[in-house]
Amino acid sequence: xxxxxxxxxxxxxxxxxxxxxxxxxxxxxxxxxxxxxxxxxxxxxxxxxxxxxxxxxxxxxxxxxxxxxxxxxxxxxxxxxxxxxxxxxxxxxxxxxxxxxxxxxxxxxxxxxxxxxxxxxxxxxxxxxxxxxxxxxxxxxxxxxxxxxxxxxxxxxxxxxxxxxxxxxxxxxxxxxxxxxxxxxxxxxxxxxxxxxxxxxxxxxxxxxxxxxxxxxxxxxxxxxxxxxxxxxxxxxxxxxxxxxxxxxxxxxxxxxxxxxxxxxxxxxxxxxxxxxxxxxxxxxxxxxxxxxxxxxxxxxxxxxxxxxxxxxxxxxxxxxxxxxxxxxxxxxxxxxxxxxxxxxxxxxxxxxxxxxxxxxxxxxxxxxxxxxxxxxxxxxxxxxxxxxxxxxxxxxxxxxxxxxxxxxxxxxxxxxxxxxxxxxxxxxxxxxxxxxxxxxxxxxxxxxxxxxxxxxxxxxxxxxxxxxxxxxxxxxxxxxxxxxxxxxxxxxxxxxxxxxxxxxxxxxxxxxxxxxxxxxxxxxxxxxxxxxxxxxxxxxxxxxxxxxxxxxxxxxxxxxxxxxxxxxxxxxxxxxxxxxxxxxxxxxxxxxxxxxxxxxxxxxxxxxxxxxxxxxxxxxxxxxxxxxxxxxxxxxxxxx
Length: 641
What we know:
The protein contains 21 helices and eleven strands. The chain is of the alpha+beta class. Among the domains are: 12-122 and 384-424, no CATH class; 343-383, no CATH class; 437-640, no CATH class. The strands form two sheets. Strands 4-5-6-7-11-10-9-8 form an eight-stranded antiparallel sheet, sandwiched between helices. Helix 1 runs parallel beside helix 16, helix 2 (35-46) packs across helix 5 and helix 9 (205-218) packs across helix 13 (310-339). The protein is globular, with a radius of gyration of 32 Å.
């Protein structure tokens, strides 16, 4: 018998630990680089009641990961193409976060990084990967395009409908006004109960969804189907989403397609039973909130108990939440009864029967028999090569780029954290310019200035933070001229007028030579001419253009469609430092607008065009003069200091 020297065991353990840190350390650096943005993201989430339990998701992920982490394995990490793809996507999301200073991209990047690490990490018990441990984090990845608000509103609407039916069964007379329940209360008049308030707080759908996700991860309910079933499920999900967009907008049909699409998408990644359990959280959330809403007016009217405020309201919320959690657990047992695994004795079925049994156990049940589980574990051990040097080099390269991105955006994040509303600013400083009444002469040819006002708005308004407005009258018309500031790039003013009830009739890009002929040949600053009309018959005529921080005119897009609108808006959302170095830092808008119930003839349009060109040129000259005076004053102050 050969004796193994005792010194070889610590050496092997030390080498294994060193190899592990070569993988874990770059992932840790990549996550650390996202930390400032993540702080901003989670601080924003804290202001939204439905997302406040996000800390539970983080702690659950950490706890389950530590419990399943392969501390005693010599080869805890292995090659994974899916892991490399997710890591690359995480880098892309981090880049978008830097480009647009948007914390949502940083949160998505961090979750993709964690999932990538878990995909190449072996579960010490099941010999599968740890990727399901990252699922609780995705519950608190805020849905884009305010889909989360639409979801909560839909659940509240259904809860209101079911509540009304139940109140009828209890014989409690009421009137449902949207999401407000009005109940006659004798001498006290009418009492109102708001469904929004009853459904608010952490006892919401997302809390119940988090419980369901933690349950399927903790009890290993996740069983991803094979590639063929997964692709078919993804195709079915896309088909449901397309039908939802293109079909008739019937509420039940639309929401049913959305639910089916989400179900098929979940099926492709977590399996049949786990998907049903997740979707059951939607039903139990409506059940939970309906029960809570029903009990409030019944307890108040029938028993004189106020459950709508204070500790009583909180206790009611947590009680029905506990009931909802129990219903989720009960649903899991019911699904196990309906779709449990099927044992098959050798020789009792032919090839067709064995195929059906295998499909049932692998796709529908999501569970394996003991023999199948042992066979799969042995196969996994043989088919998991370690991370190669090239793979580690790729991981370190991505981590280095992540760190560089984190350092670059640190200044933007620090500035955002200092803001009370935690919003990311389009500009690094206040770049508005103060105008005065006399910045435009009292007479512009036949136009006489009759009124001047300054309109201040909230930062980020679609109409600009500040507008200096001059009203003019002439024998032929009354018009309004203004300079609106400040915008991060081209601002399509026609959209603002459409939002105010005007219907766009025509939009045309023009040059000064189109108005003044050859006398304006040295002026190539284009502008937009647009005509509008309201249902009342009122007609509008708009001319507008932009100049930048140096007073130079900006080219106007000839067409404004979905494609160039997307790219220009994406450009405008960029970080000020990136946008100002690649394009322009800030943009100032000049416009003239007039409205009339009469037709606007060509002579009147020619007059408006000529006056507009003079007004915008005057505004630009005054801007350049003010800018120069401001810079000279700043330089003199610096020299004095």
